[in-house]
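Quick start: what a row looks like.
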Amino acid sequence: MKWKKFRIKTTTEAEDIIISSLYDIGLEGAQIEDKVPLTALEKEQMFVDILPDGPTDDGIAYLSFFVEETKEGGLVMNGTPVEEDEILTSVKNELEQIRQYCNIGEGSIVVDETEDIDWINNWKQYFKQFYVDDILIIPSWEKVKAEDADKMIIHIDPGTAFGTGMHETTQLCIRQLKKYVTEDTQILDVGTGSGILSIIALKMGAKHAIGTDLDPCAVPAVEENKEVNKIPSESFEMMIGNIITDKEVQDQVGYEKYDIVVANILADVLVPLTPVIVHQMKPGAVYITSGIIDNKEEVVVEAVKAAGLEIVEVTYQGEWVSVTARKQA
């Protein structure tokens, strides 16, 4: 299937108004390209190891709308045949009306053709099985080779929002978990995402895991990965909410319950997390952190020490750092 792409050059201040107006004439699902900095909330909800510095906002935005193209070359919008010129006329009229009371900038329209891409599954071509030492991490849609049958095998389908375990920060955490997990381990996984760290800990013999995350999408991701890895439902529980600021989440997670807390998140999140999370840790518990770019190492180390924890080990992979600490027994 092919689509006609109508790309409008406008201003960031006019984005929402234009999208709303064009929605009224039948154009839906706008793709927005701009250089507006992320808000604090958006940064908090980004599930990446570190946010890159973005370009300076220049006030320009591009809005793209897509209309289905038939095999015969015609266009269909909301099930109704429509001509390209008809769409262009409607869009231009809407833009001129908006221009009367809002700065829409250039307001130019470029029409292009684009192939239909399965955006939901297209990323899978980049995720292949790999090892972290003796652990084989494999996509849930790939089969295990006969020669790998005796390995610890972790099946992961991260979906479109969470990590696969390929990133250095996740691997740093996995290697630390191997050192500390026992059959009695109660683990708290902050920012659990796909659930990979908790699932690996449970496969290593941990007794129970609780994962917290800000994104509700983590719930189905974790459930799918629990099922494919044959993790009993009661062994790995999920909670959605901000454990740093939400007392209700802190209470639900519980106090002085965990032998290991693992947090593979941004250094800027680890700093406010650490003085809170010490209350969830048992005396003598281990705190494993990563997601720390090398120039943030000292910031995290100081936050860990300030919370009364003893640094046990600092490990490195590439430009990434893992800080492991222990609560006083």
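That is the whole record. The CA atoms of residues 2 and 72 lie 11 Å apart. Confidence is low (pLDDT under 50) at residues 44-51.
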